[in-house]
């Protein structure tokens, strides 16, 4: 959230109050009716029921690229599908 506030200030918006929501659709719903703005992956926005009322703008690379990982309960072993996907990605990366 700090990067989002820093970006807002860099764009000339002195006031940077932050609101927090429990769902992505809740966030996009508020933005679609004019209650602020958000940073969110493009795919989430284009698949949203609110997409036709929203506009996406590019952001600087230093805040537009974020590390992503699969989140699971700490005590669970990684799902077989995740292991298979990881192996496929490694194989493809080594081929290029």
Outline the structure in words:
The chain has five helices and no strands. The radius of gyration is 17 Å and the shape is elongated. With 96 residues, it is an all-alpha fold. The mean pLDDT is 81.
Please tell me the overall pLDDT: 81
The whole-angstrom Rg is: 17 Å
N/C terminus separation: 35 Å
Give the total of beta strands. Answer: 0
The major β-sheet equals: none
Low-confidence sequence ranges: none
What is the helix/strand order?
A: HHHHH
Shape: elongated
Number of continuous helical runs: 5
Give me the oligomer status: single chain
Short description:
45% of the residues lie in helices and 0% in strands. The protein has helices spanning 2-10, 24-32, 42-46, 61-64, 80-95.
What's the topology here?
Layout: H1 2-10, H2 24-32, H3 42-46, H4 61-64, H5 80-95
Key traits:
96 residues, mainly alpha
